[in-house]
Amino acid sequence: MEGTVASTKASSAAQSNGSTWRSEAGKAVLRGAGAVVVGVAAQTALKRAQRPRVLGVPLPRVRTKSVGKNVANVAGRVERISEDVRVASAQARRIGEKLG
Asked: How confident is the model over 19-52, as pLDDT tens digits?
């Protein structure tokens, strides 16, 4: 009877320490699955971080808000300049008519 009690205590001690082959195999599977998840997440993060390339040359990052402001500013300047050119052209035509 002592042998039975001792073997029962030994097996319960082994299970509480987590040293059975099943728990070790389970841990190995979980570690492998965790490594796969970490690898996929890292690869996804790196893909997002890469800039698009054209002929192997990375394109610069574009901030659309600042580009939009710059386009609006340039459009305003072009509009003012075209108005100035129109006025100058009208004045030149009137002077030409008076002289000619």
From this structure: 565 677 778 888 888 888 888 888 877 776 677 7
Is the Cβ–Cβ distance between 18 and 11 less than 8 Å? Answer: no
DSSP 3-state of 59: coil
- Both tokens of 28, joined, read 């190995």
pTM for the full model?
A: 0.38
Q: How many CA atoms lie within 13 A of 70 on its CB side?
A: 6
> What are the residues whose beta carbons fall under 8 Å from the beta carbon of 24, sequence distance 6 or more?
18
What sign does the dihedral 43-44-50-54 (CA atoms) show? positive
Side chain identity at residue 24, one-letter code: E
What whole-number distance in Å separates Cα of residue 53 and Cα of residue 51?
Answer: 6
What ranges do the domains of the chain cover? 63-100
Report the DSSP beta bridge partners of residue 58: 53
